[in-house]
Amino acid sequence: GAGVSQSPRYKVAKRGQDVALRCDPISGHVSLFWYQQALGQGPEFLTYFQNEAQLDKSGLPSDRFFAERPEGSVSTLKIQRTQQEDSAVYLCASSLASEAFFGQGTRLTVV
Amino acid sequence: AQRVTQPEKLLSVFKGAPVELKCNYSYSGSPELFWYVQYSRQRLQLLLRHISRESIKGFTADLNKGETSFHLKKPFAQEEDSAMYYCALLTGGFKTIFGAGTRLFVKA
Hints:
The structure holds 2 protein chains of 2 kinds. Chain A is mostly beta strands. Helices cover 0% and strands 50% of the residues of chain A. In chain A, strands 2, 4, 5, 6, 9, 10 and 11 form a 7-stranded mixed sheet that branches. In chain A, strands 1-3-8-7 form a 4-stranded antiparallel sheet, with no helix packed on it. The model of chain A has no long low-confidence stretch (mean pLDDT 95). Chain B contains no helices and 11 strands. Chain B has strands spanning 3-5, 10-14, 19-21, 24-26, 32-38, 45-49, 60-61, 72-74, 83-91, 95-98, 102-107. Chain B is globular. The chains are: A mainly beta, B mainly beta. Chain A binds chain B through residues 3-4, 31, 33, 35, 40-45, 48, 50, 55-56, 91, 93, 98-105, and chain B through 4, 6, 9, 32, 34, 43-46, 49, 86, 90, 94-101.
């Protein structure tokens, strides 16, 4: 596709449930980022991949959060045992240079 | 500490009026700064970057290292400029830090 694609667009999870969020970056983009955007806030950095290597995961809020990009293309952000405070929009972005191209995001609501 | 501050959550101006969205940053290295915009129901997208020194849709932004600012300006606001604007700082070559955003509302 022409842009970064994320699925699902919306996810409602019961507290304690595991979720998996998918990101298809722009083809050929080496860098991939995950951000968390809480209501009324700017995107907060979660983690960064260069190809399949996760070079920075300093923004992951807890060990319940896990991200992977096994073949250097599609990435999955997994959240285990979801909590209400995990409710947010999760944004994926990819880039070749300094400009990041964002997906539409996945809105996660934990009830 | 690396930080981007946008002091205004909401800025409301009349069509044709000048607009300035404020951004201040904190970074010990050489900063690379951006403005991103999110129109209603659209994805976040790059508006402009300081190294390009370009004007996009009539908007300009000048990096002032002395004041650690990167304010976004437009001399005559248009209704279609209504959107959410985020100032962003690229650190360490790849990590982008965003401000909390300013919602610009241009009234007819």
